[in-house]
TrEMBL record:
UniProt name for this protein: histidine kinase
Biological source species: Vibrio pomeroyi
Gene3D superfamilies linked to this entry: 1.10.287.130, Histidine kinase-like ATPase, C-terminal domain
Record has Ribosomal protein as a keyword: no
Transmembrane segments: 136-158
Length: 416
């Protein structure tokens, strides 16, 4: 604001002085034209009255025919060329401390009368036509005060405008520094650019939160899914040292280690696919699924006696996610079903829009919901990343006519 005030003051002074000079120049031109307008009158009166010296044409204008009747000041006039206008100043000392400097504006021309050339001087006093010096001072003082008033008004107005513009920015800065909320807000009357900035800040905030949740998710899921195979690897390695001379025992422990390592590799691939998909805007991977793609043999040993595991894959099934993710969904659904099913069967059904696992187990209760939910956290995250929804319902509360005991876990596409 201080810079603006200085610029405004300097520019106003320049404009004022230029305008004043223009007025002075225009005043001089008007006086010259005024004097020249008496040229014909001066010739006419000379011819009619034949004056010998001077003649007062008006209250302010005097014409001299020659220099005979010149006043003492006029006699000091230097030689002038014809058809010219000149201003002359004279010093009049009123007292020792007070000096008056009046002036006279003279138009000099000549005309012929009865064969004689008559030099003529038309004069006008500055006392009669010019503004007094004090008048110019008053005018400049008033103009300066008006400029200062205008600058003050503009400064106050601009300060209010800048304060209104900066208030939302200050508010945003306060919200950022204090972390008051995850959703930044500005008043509705704020200019569009600041509202757009606020929208971008909210987008970046959500992106930051999503990335933080992804990191936490990876650590949580890795801990949940890798803890068991790591324990298997450690236990098998320790058991190998107990019977170094038993080849069959060594082979069995090695197979356990390889199986656990492969499981960990698949789990890591799944987690990386989830994170990769959440940060990608490309098309989802299309995977063809058939009976040979799904291997349920590893779950057979986990089944209770008398429980049957059935797989139904519809022809031309295509899923929009990699096969490891499909296996991860099935792993969590099937292992949950096995855990709570002691008789009957577990049916796995897969088509292009649905993956479902239905069992005839004990169904859902307050005690089992938490246990089911542990493994389904990963399934829900996969669904969020690829556009699927995971649901778990109790068959006893199902609307189907064939409702029985147990529960059904369903993984369905959202765009169907």
């Amino acid at each position: 604001m201080r810079t603006f005030s200085v610029i405004a003051l300097v520019s106003s002074c320049i404009v004022f002085f230029v305008f004043s000079l223009r007025l002075v120049w225009q005043e001089e031109a008007q006086i010259e034209n005024h004097l020249k307008s008496f040229k014909g009158v001066a010739q006419q009166f000379y011819h009619q009255l034949s004056p010998t010296g001077s003649l007062k044409l008006s209250d302010n204008v005097t014409v001299y025919y020659g220099k005979a009747d010149f006043t003492d000041q006029m006699k000091k006039l230097p030689p002038m060329a014809l058809e010219t206008v000149d201003r002359q100043s004279f010093e009049i000392r009123l007292s020792e401390d007070q000096i008056l400097i009046p002036g006279v504006l003279v138009y000099h021309f000549a005309f012929e009368d009865q064969g004689k050339t008559i030099p003529t001087y038309i004069t006008i006093s500055s006392f009669d036509m010019d503004l007094w010096d004090d008048s110019w001072g008053v005018l400049m003082a008033i103009s300066t005060l008006l400029m200062l008033g205008l600058i003050i008004v503009l400064r106050v107005t601009l300060k209010r405008v800048f304060d209104q513009l900066m208030a939302p920015i200050s508010d945003l800065s306060t919200q950022l520094s204090k972390h008051e909320s995850d959703n930044f807000k500005v008043p509705d009357r704020t200019i569009d650019e600041l509202q757009m900035l606020t929208s971008h800040l909210n987008s970046y905030s959500k992106m930051k939160d999503r990335l933080a949740k992804q990191e936490m998710m990876f650590a949580k899921y890795a801990s949940h899914e890798l803890k068991t195979p790591i324990a298997i690897v450690i236990g098998a390695a320790e058991l190998q040292a107990m019977k170094p001379d038993n080849p069959a025992f060594q082979t069995k422990q090695r197979e356990r280690i390889l199986g656990a390592a492969n499981g960990m590799s698949n789990t890591v691939e799944v987690l990386l696919n989830i994170v990769k998909q959440e940060n990608s805007s490309t098309e989802k991977t299309l995977t063809d699924i058939d009976d040979s793609s799904i291997d349920l043999s590893k779950y057979q040993a986990m089944l209770s006696p008398g429980v049957e595991l059935v797989l139904n894959v519809e022809p031309d099934t295509t899923l929009n996610m990699p096969l490891p993710l499909v296996n991860m969904v099935l792993k969590n659904y099937i292992e949950n079903a096995i855990r709570f099913t002691t008789k009957g069967k577990i049916t796995v059904t897969i088509n292009s829009n649905t993956i479902s696992v239905s069992d005839t187990g004990s169904g859902l209760s307050d005690d089992t919901k938490t246990e089911h939910g542990l493994g389904l956290i990963i399934v829900k995250r996969i669904g969020d990343s690829y556009g699927w929804t995971s649901t778990l319902i109790d068959n006893a509360h199902s609307d189907t006519t064939s409702a029985s005991s147990g529960c059904t876990a369903t993984f369905a596409r959202n765009d169907i």
